[in-house]
Amino acid sequence: MTRSADLKLVRVSMMNAVHDLAVLVARDEGLFNDEGLEVEVIGTPGTAQANAGRQALRDVIFDRTMESLYNTGDVDQYRMCEWGVMKRTVEAIPCGQRPAKIVALGAAMSKMAIITAPSSRIYEPEQLKDTPVAVSPFNGSHFTTLKMLEGFVKKEHILVVNAGTMHERLEAVRRGDVAAGNFMEPWISIAQKQGFRILIESHSTRSEAASDDLDGPTLAAMFRAEAKAAELINANPAKYAHYLLAEAQGLLAPHELQTWRLLYGPPMPYTRERFAATYEWMLSYPELITPGATYETTVDNRAWV
């Protein structure tokens, strides 16, 4: 389809539907167009697709597909869990990568859940002391596992391990290769359908990152569209379930996706207080993030200027 000359082209990345649903809905409902934008969504391998590879799980985060596309300039904007964006924006320049800054908090408030096998003898989070939980290293499932377990287990007794994509992870839990894993939708619903046990779950917000090539008014227009998309999703999540069902590739019927877990909010400025709390928390774990960052070098709320 030919782009209208009246619309400004913006290229953004997406990995997993639950995290990027507000962007997909804003695109497909014409909300970006209403703001004068033509937003091209570049799909990159995540962990939620049933046939996903491990490109999003490479040991060096900047070698992963989404990060590589950003570094080469193929996209100018991306979103991940708040902590994942913090790590990437703080460490980009020291690692010789393309700079980015945090430009918003939101819009996806994705549910993450720690799950055990149907026959597991683990019934509560305390039993995960000194027991590895399968996660995606330095992505949302990693950070939310630490956050959720901190209320039950001392930090030094929380262990995580890479057991592959969501599909591979679920099979590893089923076989007993790992005692538990952290999952997002549609995989929480898939696990429930198959009789797995949910120990604990929580919403966690995304953050938005962008290069300096995206100016404040353009970001503001994007965020207005995403805010409208969030309202549409919250009002009728079942209407947009097909984006997540496509990732499940036949493992879920439409009525089996627990759409009540889907929650979205308007993008908001990333405050100094939020930065301090998040960065200090990450520094409290060894090798989770490098020290020395400041609010001024990491955050730019230019969409609200």
What percent of the residues sit in helical stretches (DSSP H or I)?
25-40%
CATH class descriptor of the largest domain? Alpha Beta
**Strand order across the largest sheet:** 3-8-4-7-5-6
Succession of helices and strands: EHHEHEHEEHEHEHEHHHH
Main sheet, how many strands, which sense, barrel?
A: 6 strands, mixed
**What would you call the quaternary organization?**
single chain
The number of distinct structural domains comes to 2
Low-confidence stretches: none
Strand tally: 8
Rg result: 19 Å
How much of the sequence lies in strands comes to 15-25%
**CATH architecture type of the largest domain:** 3-Layer(aba) Sandwich
Find the CATH topology of the largest domain: D-Maltodextrin-Binding Protein, domain 2
Backbone structural class: alpha/beta
Give the CA-CA distance, first to last residue: 34 Å
Structural commentary:
The chain has 305 residues and is of the alpha/beta class. It has two domains: 202 residues, D-Maltodextrin-Binding Protein, domain 2, CATH 3.40.190.10; 93 residues, 3-Layer(aba) Sandwich (D-Maltodextrin-Binding Protein, domain 2), CATH 3.40.190. It has eleven helices and eight strands. The strands form two sheets. The chain has a six-stranded mixed beta sheet with strand order 3-8-4-7-5-6, with helices on both faces. α1 packs across α8. The longest helix has 20 residues. It starts with 7 loop residues before the first strand and ends in a 7-residue tail after the last helix. The model has no long low-confidence stretch (mean pLDDT 92).
